[in-house]
């Protein structure tokens, strides 16, 4: 009887060892990779103020609004008598931004400078950007939008007659 119990125990252990060494099994899962568009900012139109006749009295602020209009006329505010001799020569700058559909971004720098203007142009600054899609800080489904940016400066009777060249710079932080 003892021999029979021992033989049954050895057979059970051998059967367990054989089932652990059965054919291999495998499993699968999915894989995913998201390829996104490279973030870009490209200037497609320069900021143009056009021709402005300086005031003979008082001072004026010259402003080109941030708008999509291809041709515009700057507005003049203040107590001076400056005027615009030819309308329709101004335009806001356009920057095309490209990224991924519905990607958020922020304009972290928006600066207008006229480095050689000295005291001739004062109160220089850029206007707040306006998005062509109507939604600033979120790209539309196409992943591309235009930002329109205007600017402003002050002139007075002492402003030298000259053509002033400047730089409008923006920095866009894509999230």
Draw up the topology in text.
Elements: H1 2-20, E1 40-45, E2 60-64, E3 75-77, E4 93-98, E5 105-113, E6 122-126, E7 130-131, E8 144-149, E9 151-155, E10 167-174
Antiparallel strand pairs: 1-4, 2-3, 2-9, 4-8, 5-10, 6-9, 7-8
Mind explaining what this structure looks like?
This protein has one domain. The chain is mostly beta strands and 175 residues long. Helix content is 11%, strand content 31%. The chain starts with a helix and ends with a strand. It is rod-shaped and about 100 Å long. It has a four-stranded antiparallel sheet with strand order 1-4-8-7, with no helix packed on it. Strands 3-2-9-6 form a four-stranded antiparallel sheet, with no helix packed on it. The chain contains one helix and ten strands, in the order αββββββββββ.
